[in-house]
Amino acid sequence: MSDFTMPSLGADMEDGTFVEWLVAPGDTVKRGQVVCVVETQKGAVEVEIWTDGVVDALIAEPGHKIPVGGVMAKILVKGEAPAAREGVAAKPAPEKPGVPEPEARPSARTAAPAKGVQPLRSATRLRITPAARRRAEALGVDPTKASATGGDGAITLADVERAAAVRPTQQAPSKPTVKDDAEARRSAMRDAIAAAMSLSNREIPHYYLGTAIDVAPALAWLEAHNSGLPTAGRVLFAVLQLRAVALALREVPALNGWYENGVFRSAEACHIGVAIALRGGGLVAPALRDADRLPIDAMMTALADLLRRTRAGQLRSSELSETSITVTNLGDLGVETVQGVIYPPQVALVGFGRITEKPWAENGRLFATRCVHASLAADHRVTDGAIGARFLARVADLLSRPETLWQD
């Protein structure tokens, strides 16, 4: 029997609040299947399981805080028999310190919901944003009675407010306002970011490199590619940058991985973290998985989906726990140069600034062209400047010859 534990969703995470189970005891589960939802400073996260098996017992209950590594469920692996259930419920193995011990472990379909939230009408998961969930609890509104207008049929904060307005007038419980709650969440996220970045600056010996790249050929190629396509189908220049980084990492894998316990562990795949600023404040960098295997059009689709789900609070645990390098792009905000801070335990961060028109000398000719500044922050415990320079040179070469971005 194996333990299904609270995953670490970043260096800034110490615990998570359990929200709901999407499976029940006796269910067969497959590696990569979403089995529950937890809430962190980054919002609600769909947690995947990393082993095949059968759910033996559910331990975590809604509303309970569980530390990273704390046991949430017991899973029977292939060949194991379930615990005896005739008359006496199976007693789970002792849990790690700090994990609450519930008096009973009802199934996901019959478990009592968190205080103030009405039970779901079916086993289908209710799509609701974290802010809307908390507001429904504060107002005593049954979220299943709200009309969903958000992406993927999710119930939004506005949907809950409308549902509260049309119900019979009653005294709402005295709880924090939406404004107070939002400020508390922003404060918690800032604290988490501060802890992670302080750790990075304290323990990681950064070195920085930068280079200007002539991207006029890439922009011309992109304009031709997007010509005649509907707005929703056009590729952003940021996708070409991500593609260039992914392909360059194939040749310089020393920048793709994690430094933990004094040892560098190279990533087997290229999961690029995309730094995304949240509308309510804060930052999250979920992974664009297998970026080096995605053709440009498929990468644009995957990036758009990642942006939408990040801002709707619908990320998966693998998108937060497996990022092997991060890319930040502040060009649309007018910044020319980015000097980033590495997100531990990663060992590198790539930054891109805005596109500018500048004089450029090449083969004895002087002309104006469009350029972008690319920077690299890397961990000196793992690589030296020569390796970082080779990586940046490869990124520049790929962006200056956009036809190579199509090559697998």
From TrEMBL:
This is Dihydrolipoamide acetyltransferase component of pyruvate dehydrogenase complex. Residues 127-164 form the Peripheral subunit-binding (PSBD) domain. GO terms for molecular function: acetyltransferase activity; lipoic acid binding. Coiled coil: none annotated. Residues 86-122 are annotated as: Disordered. It comes from Azoarcus taiwanensis. The keyword rRNA-binding does not apply. GO terms for cellular component: cytoplasm.
